[in-house]
Design brief:
With 462 residues, the protein is mainly alpha-helical. It has helices spanning 13-28, 42-62, 69-72, 102-110, 132-144, 165-179, 185-201, 203-207, 215-219, 221-225, 232-247, 249-257, 261-271, 274-287, 291-299, 303-312, 315-328, 332-340, 343-352, 357-367, 371-379, 382-392, 396-410, 417-427, 429-436, 439-452, and strands spanning 2-3, 6-7, 91-93, 99-101, 129-130. It has 4 domains: 2-72, no CATH class; 77-144, 2-Layer Sandwich (Herpes Virus-1); 167-299, Leucine-rich Repeat Variant, CATH 1.25.10; 342-462, Leucine-rich Repeat Variant. Strands 4-3-5 form a 3-stranded antiparallel sheet. Strands 1-2 form a two-stranded antiparallel sheet. Mean pLDDT is 84; it is low at 1-9, 30-39, 60-70, 152-160 and 457-462.
């Protein structure tokens, strides 16, 4: 079939050509196991031919994309998803700058992971940005090798996650049982548990919520209707389902704009079991990937209960709480709110205890652009804490965040210069970082050295 003046080749042509070459080699010399021109011997030649036959059979029977696999085996490794190890159909970039196939990284996120699979860094957000450069490179390579472009191939594959009409009926039935005042508590709990499981495993059950403005309110009916508390297990299932929904990009704006959702999440942060509170924090983290949502959550008072939960220090909730606070504080207005709600003292106490240092230092560095935050840090002994961390940590990123905060302190409070001079005199910490740190760390360290070693300004009369 012609497209834009270019004929799209039969996606099985290359496999058939390879098969002919293999069969010819096998027939002409089947008596030995010596190496053929393919780079392997008779036995491997037969195995590869069998594999191609299987791929051709699957492609003819199911129309699956697997018929293309052998043709893509020789593609540059940069085109393969680090998770699936297969050529990427829809390359996307995550917050750490790494590129993955959308389906693979979405599955990773859906499973509840909040880190980069390769670097293990905590994700500052879960927005997936199309990598057009890699996509164009894959397209060009496929065209040069006579292969259909992944995702644009005339060979279609079945979307196993697509909801059938029976699935949709089941979905509506579950929501009806959850929201109906005539349902027994057992029916409500069973339906909520089932919906939690479905939205975790199948993206289509998450996506279907965006098709109706009443779906989320129906889901939350048991919470909004409860007057004397709610069953803890039911509460956890409903909040976790909300978390599952929030992972879907199309649901982020809808979820935040649905009445009572933020209030329900903030109540869950304060009143739920620790599992429920952790999942409420994780939900706020994923929802805050959108800047407009950051503002809504901040104005609704979302930072205070997060900071309180951080102060409590439950290991199960700490990472999600820190990630949510970091995301929210990316916008200027929320930095002011976080400082007002006591974030500086809570974070410094945790850092002093060497708890979640990487994540909390990143937040503190972000808050250091706030004058009130700097004043609090000075009063709470941040200088000595940060200087000791620079000497102690092996993380270049942590050293950079420490010196960035010290730089802000140095340029806002001259009373701390003496402490920095003494540190430099005893250990040469700033000089070392000015020579061996990241480019930003070197710049900040040398800026501090220049300032604290500068002669005292004098007024001259001419």
């Amino acid at each position: 079939m012609a497209k834009s003046g270019v004929f799209d080749p039969d996606p099985t042509d290359n496999l058939k050509k390879e098969l002919r070459r293999l069969v010819t080699a096998i027939v002409e010399d089947s008596s030995s196991d010596e190496e053929f021109g393919f780079g392997f011997g008779f036995t491997e030649c037969v195995d590869k031919a069998v594999k191609i036959l299987q791929d051709l059979k699957e492609g003819r029977t199911h129309g699956s994309y697997s018929v293309m696999k052998s043709g893509f085996d020789s593609c540059p490794k940069e085109f393969n998803c680090p998770i699936s190890k297969r050529i990427m159909m829809d390359p996307v970039i995550i917050s750490t700058g790494k590129t993955y196939d959308r389906a693979s990284i979405q599955k990773w996120l859906t499973a509840g992971n909040r880190t980069c699979p390769e670097t293990h860094q905590v994700l500052s957000h879960t927005v997936l940005t199309p990598n057009h450069l890699v996509r164009d490179m894959i397209t060009q390579w496929c065209n040069n090798h006579g292969l259909p472009v992944p995702g644009l191939s005339p060979v279609h594959y079945v979307d196993e996650n697509r909801l059938t009409e029976a699935d949709r009926y089941h979905f509506r039935s579950l929501l009806k049982k959850i929201s109906s005042s005539s349902s027994s508590i057992t029916e409500v709990k069973e339906s909520a548990s089932t919906l939690r499981s479905l939205t975790k495993k199948n993206p289509s059950f998450r996506a279907v919520f965006s098709e109706s403005s009443t779906a989320i309110p129906e889901l939350l009916t048991p919470i909004t209707r409860a007057k004397n508390g709610i069953d803890p297990d039911l509460h956890e299932d409903l909040i976790t389902t909300l978390l599952n929904l929030s992972i879907q990009d199309d649901n982020k704006k809808l979820t935040v704009e649905t009445p009572n959702v933020i209030a329900v999440l903030l109540d869950a942060l304060r009143l739920g079991t620790i599992e429920t509170r952790a999942n409420a924090a994780a939900t706020l983290f994923t929802l805050s990937a959108l800047d407009s949502n950051k503002l809504v959550i901040g104005k609704a008072g979302g930072l205070k209960p997060l900071i309180e939960l951080l102060e409590e220090g439950h290991a199960l909730a700490m990472k999600d709480v820190a990630s949510a606070i970091f995301n929210l504080c990316i916008v200027h207005e929320n930095k002011t709110r976080a400082v007002r709600d006591g974030a500086v003292s809570v974070i410094l106490n945790k850092i002093n205890d060497r708890v979640l240092v990487d994540e909390l230092l990143a937040i503190l560095a972000m808050l250091s652009s706030n004058q009130t935050a700097i004043e609090e840090m000075c009063d709470l002994g941040a200088v000595s804490c940060l200087l000791s961390l620079i000497k102690e940590t092996t993380s270049a990123q942590n050293k950079e965040n420490c010196i960035a905060i010290l730089y802000a302190i140095c340029f806002n409070d001259q009373t701390k210069w003496r402490e920095m001079r003494e540190e430099e005199s005893l250990y040469g910490t700033l000089t070392w970082l000015g020579q061996n740190g990241t480019s930003r760390a070197r710049r900040k360290a040398n800026g501090i050295l220049d300032r604290i070693n500068r002669p005292v300004n004098r007024t001259h009369t001419e």
